[in-house]
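An example makes the point: we print one protein in full, the chain in one-letter code, the fold tokenised, without further comment:
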Amino acid sequence: MKKNRKFITILSLIAAASMVYAAGTISEESLGLRKTDLYSESNVKPDEGKFAAKAPGSSKRFERSYENAPPMIPHSVEGLLPITKNNNACLGCHMPNVAKSMGATPIPPSHFANFRPKTKLDASGKIIKEGKTITNTSDVKVVVHKQDKLYQGRFNCSQCHAPQADIPPAVANNFQPEFRSADAKHKSNFIDVLNEGVDIQ
């Protein structure tokens, strides 16, 4: 038995050495995603991507990457950035009360809610929720505290939503999302499925 293991180990080492020797004939330019000399930066340039130039309201929405994924921005963001809590041009078209008339995707209910648990620290630094000590915050079922206005924890739209550049991917991706309904391709139901799969007493 031990002889067989030694023989297999020796064969494996010979095969690995042969592969290393054969790899010596592979050019460095063919390795990795850069496709250029690994020791020089003089020819390294990022791909020049063209971002959508269409004005808001005149572009076609992208299908979400997966169910409840933040939708990507299909229009130009020139003049709309930076976004601050006091200056957010996105709200002019995407607030639910005006989105339909503007032909825009409405901000979903999840952005009008605070999901943080109402907890406090006791004198020793332990987290207390509803009179009980919490040892692991992941054990706290998420409770939705709805608000009438946009929750300021989500004022920065470009933190999750981004414009798309027309650049071929460096690595092919065959991921195909599965949506539970046709509606989910362009609409969020995140607030309804927030605790899906959570079984906490």
Q: What stands out?
A: Residues 66 and 177 are 5 Å apart (CA to CA).
